[in-house]
Amino acid sequence: MKEQKRFRWSGFSYTTRLTVMFALIAAMTALVAMGVVSFVWEEHFKTYTTENMNTLAETTARRIGQSYAKTESLDDPATISPAVQASEMTSGVAVRVVDAQNQTVYDSSAVVEEVLGGRRWYQSLEPLDPSRVATAPIISEGKTVGSVRIWVYGSETLMRQPDQVFRQNSYQAMLIAALVAILLASCIGFLFARGLVRPINRMSKTATAITEGDLSARTGLRGEDEISRLGETFDEMAEAVEKDRELERRLTTDVAHELRTPLMAIQATVEAMIDGVYEPDEERLNTVNSEVQRLGRLVDALLKLSRLENRSTPMKEEKVNVGQLIAGIVATHEMFVADSGLTLNYHADDDVFVLGDPDMIRQATANLISNAVRYTKEGGRIDVTVGKGDLMASIAVKDTGIGLSPEEAKMVFSRFWRADAGRNRDVGGLGVGLAVVKEIVDRHGGWVKVEGEKGKGACFTIYLPLYAEEKPGWPAVGLGRNGQKPQKPQKPPKKPRR
């Protein structure tokens, strides 16, 4: 036997579900409203019809009392004429007049029951339940001479046939109104759902297009509502993905170029020495060695960045005197900077301590200095400064090099990105140095700020949380023992978009 398909709400489209929900809400609202109105209406309508019958009975009794004052007899047709008129003018209503001895004088509902000895015996249809009968005494000159009794045929609430028809028509009108409300709610829900789902479908189609390789696909959503902001964020994400893919393509080109050049040089030199074209002297071996070192640096940089990003490199947690640490780095780079024809200046505040890995901080600062040397022309200046703020320590490397534009500042920390002016082999590196800097600083709970102007130089500043000695009741400022980033004590400047 085939397995029967179970009803699953999730199997319907979002538009269908939302339309059904609107219809159900409208139906529930209509049912509640009809129930409340019916309850209130029944009570008030019952009271209204009862009061009408009581008023009719009192009016009829008063008129009969006035006639009785003239005729002094209830048997006189002129006396009970108001009762006759009431029964004839009000459809579905029976009127009965009895005297003081409870003898029937007039009964519009009486029917002949039997005829015995030439006499007719009448049977009244007056209900036995007194609540179904409106009664009013007939008073003449302060004396009760009888009473008038009025009831409605076939009704337990003194409700006449027109009143019953009116009530029934009212209920029908409420039911029709409920159906119309449900229909309108369904239409509104359908239109609302379509409007709500349309941008979601656009994002879905855009995501599908991106998955299929069209990285230029965008939702194009704009607005102030949540879905529009989601669409804008989605487009920003897609743009970032497209840029990352472009960077990966550039990486492929760069790596191929960087690897091919030294490999071809090594291959050509070795083949020439094998063929006897070149002698395996010191000069040829130095050429091969320099190219091998270039390949080693390339592989080492890629491996280091990968380990940092994957958090596979353990990080030490030591109290670091930043001024002394950076002073050592500056000392080791003085000759390198001088050979490039540049001037290196250094200044540090006293007692600047952070909690972190000194090797990583040394690596990040060395990368910034190397980057400054690479993009600063001969005769320029590099300033390295260590500062101490209220909550953060800063390491600034400022140069007078080629600078960078605001657009380049947004991309400068991206992996494998290099300024166009530095993409040649003689000047530019592979483009992973600043990415390594950012990963190191992120792991220390800090951030990197870049400032600069095209043609006037740039300044890279590392911010790290200051270290404070533990005191009773006061936690130390720095990285936690679990290796997690601490909460930043102040809001950082806006980071460049990766």
UniProtKB/TrEMBL annotation:
Listed name of the protein: histidine kinase
GO molecular function, one term: phosphorelay sensor kinase activity
Taxonomic path: Bacteria, Bacillati, Actinomycetota, Coriobacteriia, Coriobacteriales
Coiled coil: none
First-level EC class: transferase
SUPFAM superfamilies named in the record: ATPase domain of HSP90 chaperone/DNA topoisomerase II/histidine kinase (SSF55874), HAMP domain-like (SSF158472), Homodimeric domain of signal transducing histidine kinase (SSF47384)
PANTHER family: HISTIDINE KINASE 1, TWO-COMPONENT HISTIDINE KINASE
Region (Disordered): 475-498
Annotated InterPro entries: HAMP_dom, HATPase_C_sf, HATPase_dom, His_kinase_dom, HisK_dim/P_dom, HisK_dim/P_sf, Sensor_HK_Regulatory, Sig_transdc_His_kin-like_C
Keywords of the record: Kinase, Membrane, Phosphoprotein, Transferase, Transmembrane, Transmembrane helix, Two-component regulatory system
HAMP domain location: 194-246
The EC number(s) this enzyme carries: 2.7.13.3
Annotated catalysed reactions: ATP + protein L-histidine = ADP + protein N-phospho-L-histidine
Membrane spanning residue stretches: 20-41, 171-193
Localisation: Cell membrane
Organism: Parvibacter caecicola
Domain of life the protein comes from: Bacteria
GO CC list: plasma membrane
Domain (Histidine kinase) ranges: 254-468
